[in-house]
Amino acid sequence: MLSAYVDGELTGVEMLEIRRHLSDCPDCAHEHESVLFTKRAVSRLANVAPTEDFMARLMTSIGEVRVPAYQRRFNSLARLMHRRLSPVAAALAVSGFAMVVLSAGGMVDKLGPSVEQHNADAAYVGARVSFLPELHSNPESIASASPLMVASDATSVANAKVELVSFDQPR
Amino acid sequence: MVEFADTVSDVAGSQDRREFDALVQRHHKQAYNIAYRMAGNHADAEDLTQEAFIRAFRFFGQYRRELPFDSWLYKIMSNVFIDRLRRKPKAKIRSLDQPVVTADGEAQFDVADTAAGPEECVLSREMDSHIQAALDTLPDAFRLTVIYADIEGLSYEEIAEATKTNIGTVRSRLHRGRRLLRNKLSKYANQLF
User: Fold this and answer.
1) What DSSP designation does A46 have?
2) The pTM is what?
3) Which of A62, A65, A99 sits opposite B1 (nearest CB)?
4) Would you give the distance in Å from CA B42 to the centre of its chain?
5) Does residue B146 or residue A141 have the better pLDDT?
6) Is B63's CB within 8 Å of A139's CB?
């Protein structure tokens, strides 16, 4: 309670009650002092700077990251969604990805078993549709769930379908 | 059509990279400082910061632009810290009475210049090393909560969101973390304030 008091994380009434209590109770007043002491000790720590060349090395390692094609497409689609494109542009994006979906489906007959495997992957991802909206609302959980995101190009199409459906729903 | 989609995503990718680079430039020092306070040494702080930004870049498309970037980064850093530090939990804990040794074998921390005179500066650095050593002894979740509250100045609600927990847990971790810190630092009370 005293930690929350020091941090100003209580209601106004609680803050007043504790303040009043502290003036009457030496033990609590002492405890309050020690919480303040600890908070100030950590707050006073100086900022630690990285070495001069750290940012350049950081940029280099980011440049070496190979984001898979499906992830890039998913990212660019999510980017469009987040920026709340105009209805016309959104409709174009929707129809564009719908065509991708259709053409990917149509290629099954022409390309044979390997593409069928991609479609099987897409079906597998379709089975996970229920957890994707949750991930979308909490982007960090996507980062922690990265092993699940290993998939083929067809998977990105399936992901795109999920996003397109959710685009028209209230958020 | 697939080629067209690739072209679109390539263009978006290069735009993402430019936008991301600007965010790295703006936030890397803040992220590094948090990482250093979590890890207690420069080598691990570099690794943690790098890992956090790489993870952020991979999933940058899912970052919602209307929210502050640092709020999103806090969440990613929390995950990275817990993942990485759990693998080597006790390696860097040291006694308060031992001299502080950095990755370069030096006895002092690399801290920003202050307006204080040379003597005060040395004392201040020395005290920082004691406080850092005390922080190092805390369990990871307690340390992260204390850093977010007292160094970053986040509210309980923001900490709860960043660490994927509830406000009651944040309150409890802070209370227990500060109590542990106080026990470690009480002998320096006169020098601190």
Assistant:
1) P
2) 0.66
3) A99
4) 12
5) B146
6) yes
